[in-house]
Amino acid sequence: MPKIEILAPVGSEEMLRAAVFSGADAVYLGFSGFNARTGAGNFDADSLKEAVRFCHARGVKVHVALNTTVYGGELAALAAAVKAVAESGADAVICQDLAVAQLIGRIAPDLPRHGSTQMSVHTLQGALELKELGFTRVVLARELSLPEVEHITKHCGIETECFVHGALCMCVSGQCYMSAFLGGRSGNRGSCAGPCRLPFEANPLPEGKPGRLHHLSLKDNSVIDKLDRMQAVGVASAKIEGRLRTPEYVAAAVSACLAGREGRAYDRDLLKNAFSRSGFTSGYLDGKIDGTMFGVRSEADAELTKKTLPALRELYRRERSRVPVQFRLEIEEGGEKLTVTDADGNKAFAYGDAEPQPARTDPTESLQRSLSKTGGTPFAVEKIDVEMDGGPWFVPGSAVNELRRDALEALLKKREVLRPWPVHEAEPDALPLRTLPPHRTLRARFEAWEQVPEQALSGVEYLILPIAQADRVPREWREKTLLELPRVMFGALEEDTARRIAATQNAGFAGYEVSNIAHLRLCRGLPMTGGFGLNVTNQMAAQFYADHGLNSVLILPEVKDSDISTIAPTHNGKPVPTGVLVYGHMPLMVTRACPLQNIHDCAHCNKAGELTDRKAKKFPVRCGMGVRTIYNPVPIYMGDKPGALTVDYGVAYFTLESREEAAAILDSIRVHAPFEGEFTRGLYFKGTN
User: Fold this and answer.
1) Winning range, highest mean pLDDT, from 207-221, 425-439, 449-463
2) Same-domain check for residues 291 and 388
3) Structurally, how many domains does the chain consist of?
4) Count of beta carbons in the 10 Å neighbourhood of residue 184
5) In sequence order, which residues have a C-beta less than 8 Å from that of residue 108 and are 6 or more positions away?
6) Where would you tag: which of 193, 230, 524, 688 has the fewest CB atoms within 10 A of its CB?
7) What does the pLDDT look like over 534-580, one tens digit per residue?
8) CA distance 553 to 531
9) Where is this region: Disordered (predicted)?
């Protein structure tokens, strides 16, 4: 059985040494400007090469994160980043945006691609789609249980990677817009401000009273004691979260993982003291999702970490001997020659000028002992052959030690030589510059059929309803109705969704709205339009979806107006319409854990509630289809600015509204009237960091 890889986070050069010296099999680090931890000490072209030299010399792989969404004006810089990664000889790129994946395919097609957890892949069909697109590994969503991980791993045909230790985002990765919409710092752009760690209280509170409790803050994940089971089901890589943490934290987690992989006990208290939020949780992998998963970083936690740092530094103080080598020492009357060989076929030589003296006894065992002393180097001796021509010969220990040092130093230099991936000259296509279309249409999305007002049929281009509502749509309305597929499909929901698609594809509906990479497989050959869960932020990604069958594409509401105007996909020479949200309470988070479980269990819940933040704002929470959605209390409204954004259609996104409220808002949008009440323009004129 292949050993599960221990993959460690690196956010600085010291963290790199800590990860490697403590025993990680691979590291992942960010390339400056395009990775999901812009606050970490990321690497540029030169420092990346040095990191790869250091790691490859020691048998450690390097995965480079280029895993943010990208805007049109950044595509040229992204191409340069891809070239730099390829020229470094790094082992893989982790990517979220399909523009990154496509540029790798053009520039360095042999460079392996790993699908980031930001791609929100949590089902078999999603992993299969990545395989078809040329990815070699998928980083699975953190919310999966072990049976769900096993099902995907055994059937997807590519490697799977799972988070085994570190922070848990409350929201499904790639689907969180809270930091962007509350503070202008996008998690999808690597700038998350961590608002879920601030007070959000699920208890009912009077108007104006701020929330004090942390009901969106999960404890850190830790499933290291289950590594042997994950290895047994075929998971390729065990990933430690934490590029923003410390070298000591990395060393503690790697050391624990090495023990866990072998089914050995490890010091859980030491690991907890390195960093925790009042302990750990394994709720997702265990399939036990409840209120015990929540926790905060306390002053006591911080004090324990401070006291533990000296002990943790011992874990990476010395180089770990890990690269197997073989020695052959040849001694003859004129001198000595030492050959060292590694498993990759690299060879290095050292020659001695000590005059061998005749030995009275066989010195082989003593020579082997001297050669085996490789402590403090990356090398571990696997085999030692000693050949003596005309001997036995005596050689001083100091001379043998010098031979060993010289040979290993020469081998280290050979192993440090970079092996770049072949690079083709390729650049992103020139960006189109759209003009405002003469007519813009309106689409209206509703959570449930009872919200749909009578006048919607004649006043909108398409209705959009969840596929679970399909049976409620009258036949005469179906040719104008798109069926929305669930953004998140945990457990049996993917198979249930596939059955619903099969049951509705000949029922007269206009098509399906897709918002996850898995939906491309589920709806292949059927009419599709793109929802904002696809996170389309640039022309290359939009064109990818147009090429894969989407007849229209919704642009992520994080994108600024000037970037929206550069997104204009085509198919067979004809424009593919693009759209934006023109009204709606933005779904800021979609979660598998439920914040309402901080105050009661599911048996005593009506599937609705609210969270009150530290400023006394109330955020609606709704439960359905196995997930919770947290909405922005203030809606986006662009109905009075019909010419502000260069797109073909707008979407009125109804979730919390009554039928009467929806009708009034649709009327306002049609006549371009100002919004009555508090609203936001979202990020259309501000953009995000």
Assistant:
1) 207-221
2) no
3) 3
4) 15
5) 82, 83, 85, 86, 421, 422, 423, 424
6) 524
7) 999 999 999 999 999 999 999 999 999 999 999 999 999 999 999 99
8) 7
9) 351-375
Shared domain for 119 and 235, answered yes or no, is yes
Predicted confidence at residue 34, as pLDDT, reads 84
What CATH number is associated with residue 141?
Answer: 3.20.20.70
Residues facing residue 336 across a β-bridge: 331, 352
- What tokens does 299 get? 């002053």
Q: Does the bond joining 392 to the residue before it have cis omega, within 30 degrees of 0? A: yes
- Distance (Å, whole) CA 487 – CA 122: 11
Residues 351 and 463 occupy one common structural domain: no
- The two three-digit tokens of residue 497, written as one number: 């969704």
Q: Which residue segment(s) compose the domain that 511 sits in?
A: 441-586+633-671
Q: Quick one: pLDDT at residue 620?
A: 98
Contact by Cβ (8 Å): 124, 517: no
pTM more than 0.90: yes
Length of the chain: 689
Residues 6+ apart with CB under 8 A from 551: 511, 527, 528, 529, 571, 576, 577
Q: How confident is the model at residue 36 (pLDDT cuts 50, 70, 90)?
A: low
Contacts of 61 (CB under 8 A, 6+ apart): 5, 25, 26, 27, 55, 91, 92
- Sequential DSSP letters for 239-290: EEP-TTS-HHHHHHHHHHHHHHHTT----HHHHHHHS-SSSEE-HHHHT--S
Closest listed residue to residue 638, CA positions, set 559, 583, 588: 583
Structure-token pair, residue 386: 């000693």
Are residues 335 and 276 part of one domain? no
What's the rounded Cα separation, in Å, for the pair 464 and 549?
A: 18
Residue 531 has pLDDT above 70, yes or no: yes
Residue 195 lies in a domain: no
